[in-house]
Amino acid sequence: MPASNLLNHLSRRQLIQLGLLSGAGLAGSALGINLLAQSRNRQNVIVPPFDIPQTKDAANPAAVLRDFDYGTVTQENGRTVREFRVEARTSALQLNQSTSFVTWNLNGRVPGPTFRATQGDRIRVIFYNKAGHSHSLHFHGVHSAEMDGVKPVKHNAVQIYEFDAEPFGVHLYHCHIEPISRHVGKGLYGMFIVDPPTPRPPADEIVLIMAGYDVNDDRKNELFAFNGLPDYYMKHPIPIQQDQLIRLYVLNLIEFDPVATFHLHANMFRVYRTGRTLEPSEETDVITMGTAERHILEFSFHHTGKFMFHPHQDYIAESGCMGAFEVIANSKA
Questions:
Q1: Is 183 annotated as a binding residue?
Q2: CA-CA distance, 309 to 240, in Å (whole number)?
Q3: Measured CA distances, 29 to 23, 25, 61, 83 (Å)
Q4: Does 174 show up as a binding residue in the annotation?
Q5: Would you place residue 269 in the very low, low, confident or very high pLDDT band (cuts 50, 70, 90)?
Q6: How confident is the model at residue 308 (pLDDT cuts 50, 70, 90)?
């Protein structure tokens, strides 16, 4: 049934059962499938534990880092359907000791869930807006005009987006209600990964999304962050294993600043632009990214210790968009 017709057939009771009117079940229903899929993708991959207490705030970089939402999976007419349930909310985020910021977010987190599918899957996103303003979800990729997510979804309304997952690559989604820079800047964005039909080699897969915060509404960013909180990964370096293949899914969603780079210390990475290739296009240690540009970057560290990563626009890095990897030594046989 097309999404536009399906919505008309959902009663309030059915929406409650789906978890859309209570907030319950937004993530838990897919937990078992997510864990199974992640386990399958990490065979022979060593992922050191990241033993950092998870925050109850709207941003939780420890959770975002390696969390992929594969949806609730069903089979319809012989094909795989992945259903995602998303709720827009309004909540405060403590950016640092002196700065609190009111976010518009998805499922209570900034950035929103990292949706993941395989090329050819059918995607069904049930979006319920509880954030107090009109919002929408616009997905990058290929879909019909009616699924483009440019029409406002009013407060307390529900919209269903349905389309095929194509093409494979690293995509994104975000609110498309004007002023778009404000809606994105307040947290309504996330990553959407479409895997190729033939899986990429096993790797420790990590999501890093760069974003800015305009805390005084002057259309300039005063703070910046990876995965929601300024300086989080400097205070809590990301543990990775020595000689382990790392696959970074990197997205630049910094509004107001036209460009940002990503630089990795003491190493080089292979670049798969927009995730649209199975072979790298280049090898470098710094790449330039405009707003909404994204890539897959692959590397491994032979040396142990702590190694920084950051944009090479120093004012962006020094204002919170900076982190470090901590390379853990392999155990001796």
A1: yes
A2: 13
A3: 12, 6, 22, 10
A4: yes
A5: very high
A6: very high
pLDDT of residue 13: 45
137 confidence band (pLDDT: 50, 70, 90): very high
Check the annotation: does 135 bind a ligand.
yes
CA 305 vs CA 266, 321, 323, 330: distances in Å: 11, 20, 14, 12
Q: Dump pLDDT digits (tens) for 258-268.
A: 999 999 999 99
Angstrom distances, CA of residue 210 to CA of 109, 184, 229, 249: 15, 12, 10, 11
Res. 37: pLDDT tops 90: no
Which of 313, 308, 312 minimizes the C-alpha distance to 324?
Answer: 308
- Torsion of Cα atoms, 53 then 57 then 62 then 64, to 10°: 150
Distance of CA 262 to the CA centre of its chain: 17
- pTM to 2 decimals? 0.87
In Å, how far are 65, 223, 291 from 116, measured between CA atoms? 14, 29, 21
Structure confidence by residue, pLDDT tens digits, 205-239: 999 999 999 999 999 999 999 999 999 999 999 99
